[in-house]
Design a protein that fits this description.
Length: 127
């Protein structure tokens, strides 16, 4: 009993199986390809959204810090009080300056008197 193997039937069956596999792969690619692209895009957008959230949080912290700084600054009334105090100091300094000028004139007169006494004493009353 010798049997011959008919390869043509095997080739036809293999070609059919290959065609079905290719058709299945094509259908799989059609349905999963855009999903993969979209999932990649979605993950990219999620990353960007996460970065934006972090950035917004940093900005919120900076705003809180600036708000605290501004709240700690002196107000209009306090600045007005400071201006009045400085005006008072300015007046006091003018008064001190006038007093110092008067003292300088008195000291000049005293120096001239002391100089005359020194001259008199140095000459020993020779007149």
């Amino acid at each position: 009993m010798t049997s011959t193997i008919d390869f043509s039937q095997i080739v036809v069956v293999a070609a059919g199986i290959m065609t079905l596999l290719n058709l299945g792969a094509m259908v799989w690619t059609i349905f999963t390809g855009p999903a993969r692209k979209l999932s990649g895009r979605v993950s990219e957008l999620e990353d960007r959204a996460s970065e934006q959230d972090k950035r917004a949080e940093r900005h919120a912290q900076q705003l809180v810090g600036l708000s605290q700084t501004v709240n700690a600054m002196p107000g209009k009334d306090q600045m007005h009080q400071l201006e009045l105090a400085l005006a008072g100091i300015r007046g006091d300094l003018r008064e001190i300056g006038a007093t110092m000028e008067g003292n300088a004139k008195i000291m000049a007169r005293l120096e001239s008197v002391v100089t005359r006494h020194e001259d008199h004493l140095l000459e020993g009353g020779k007149r």
